[in-house]
């Protein structure tokens, strides 16, 4: 009789073989994770450096001087002697008003002056005749005093006639309307044949001085005080007269012009705490025109350890607090809260929250989460960092 143990030995190798195959099909999860490559994160290494802090502010161009050309005497406009939109010099003739009635007024004033001079002659003669008679008591003292009074009255009438003649001459000169300042003249506000100066000083044209020209802009009081301190301490470059430098840019074509900041006539708006400043700029080609909007860049001083990161590196949650992602020495992503300053181009100035040597993720920050492992890749300037 056979025992059952005779049938088990042939089955043992088969079982061992099955277990071996099963073990080969299964892979350790840890080894599988290590075999997969880590995601690459483009980072910027924080390296503080000295940087000239600037601020870009909106501004508007204003003329250095504006003169309203008005009719100072009544009359009919006979002639316009300028081209609209042209540059004129101080004293250039712009309009001529009919001088005929004004010439007649001058002639009349001359006649009144001649009459006054004749009265003086007559009064002087009477005083000379009465003087010895009064001394001899041949006439009363009252008659002599009346002669003296007539003499003084005649002299006063002469002074009045001379003033009237000077006024008439001035009015005749005003019939020739001249440019009070040099600058660019706009369109004519009256035409030939128009009656001007009848009861009021009729506007006839406007002249604006465009070189130099002003750019008005507003700035916070704190920035203004910082700017003044930086200029006084020599931390920003100033011009020979001590004025701080400014630069304005216009439009998308990149036109820019450097000027000087005028600290005088500074006024503070009580409701906003902003100050109105004025920059003076050369404008020889008249590119800058009154009313244009420009960007005014002012220097605030040099920060010795300034830190800048691209705007796209900033993450903001529902609380609007700015945060960045940094990669530590083990390649782990960490989240960091930062305090931001002003924008400079496409970069934010970081006031606090980052240290020298730290690596900040600057591209695709939405794809990384704190605690994950990454492979940091240093961003180069050619990549826009």
Write a compact overview of the structure shown:
With about 375 residues, this protein is α+β, with helices and mostly antiparallel strands.
Strand content is: 35-45%
Number of helices: 5
- Give the integer mean of the pLDDT values: 82
Alpha-carbon distance between the two ends: 89 Å
Q: What is the name of the CATH superfamily of the domain at 55-63 and 208-302?
A: Efflux pump adaptor protein, beta barrel domain
What descriptive keywords fit this protein?
single chain; 385 residues; alpha+beta; Elongation Factor Tu (Ef-tu), domain 3; Helix Hairpins; conserved putative lor/sdh protein from methanococcus maripaludis s2 fold; six-stranded mixed β-sheet; six-stranded antiparallel β-barrel; 5 helices; 21 strands; disordered N terminus; disordered C terminus
């Amino acid at each position: 009789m056979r025992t059952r143990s005779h049938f088990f030995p042939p089955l043992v190798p088969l079982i061992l073989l099955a277990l071996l195959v099963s073990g080969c099909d299964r892979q350790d999860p840890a080894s599988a994770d290590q075999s997969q490559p880590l995601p690459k994160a483009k980072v910027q290494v924080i390296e503080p450096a000295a940087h000239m802090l600037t601020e870009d502010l909106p501004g508007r161009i204003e003329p250095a001087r504006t003169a309203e050309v008005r009719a100072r005497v009544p009359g009919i406009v006979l002639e316009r002697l300028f081209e609209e939109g042209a540059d004129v010099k101080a004293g250039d003739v712009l309009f001529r008003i009919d001088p005929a009635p004004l010439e007649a007024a001058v002639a009349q004033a001359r006649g009144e002056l001649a009459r006054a001079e004749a009265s003086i002659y007559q009064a002087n003669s009477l005083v000379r005749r009465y003087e010895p008679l009064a001394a001899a008591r041949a006439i009363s003292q009252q008659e002599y005093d009346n002669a003296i009074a007539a003499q003084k009255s005649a002299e006063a009438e002469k002074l009045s006639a001379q003033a009237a003649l000077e006024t008439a001459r001035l009015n005749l000169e005003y019939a020739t309307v001249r440019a009070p300042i040099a600058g660019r003249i706009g369109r004519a506000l009256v035409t030939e044949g128009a009656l001007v100066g009848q009861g009021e000083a009729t506007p006839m044209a406007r002249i604006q001085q465009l070189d130099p020209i002003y750019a008005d802009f507003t700035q916070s009081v704190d920035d203004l005080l910082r700017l003044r301190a930086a200029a006084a301490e020599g931390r920003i470059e100033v011009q020979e007269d001590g004025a701080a430098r400014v630069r304005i840019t216009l439009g998308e074509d990149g036109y820019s012009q450097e000027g000087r900041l005028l600290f005088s006539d500074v006024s503070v708006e009580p409701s906003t705490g902003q100050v109105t400043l004025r920059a003076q700029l050369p404008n020889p080609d008249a590119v800058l025109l009154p009313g244009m909007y420009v960007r005014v860049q002012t220097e605030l001083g040099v920060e010795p350890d300034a830190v800048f990161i691209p705007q796209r590196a900033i993450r903001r949650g529902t609380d609007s607090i700015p945060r960045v992602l940094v990669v530590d020495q083990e390649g782990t992503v960490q989240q960091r809260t930062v305090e931001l300053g002003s924008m400079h181009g496409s970069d934010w100035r970081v006031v606090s929250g980052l240290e020298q040597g730290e690596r900040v993720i600057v591209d695709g920050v939405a794809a990384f989460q704190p605690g994950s492992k990454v492979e940091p890749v240093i961003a180069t300037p050619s990549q826009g960092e």
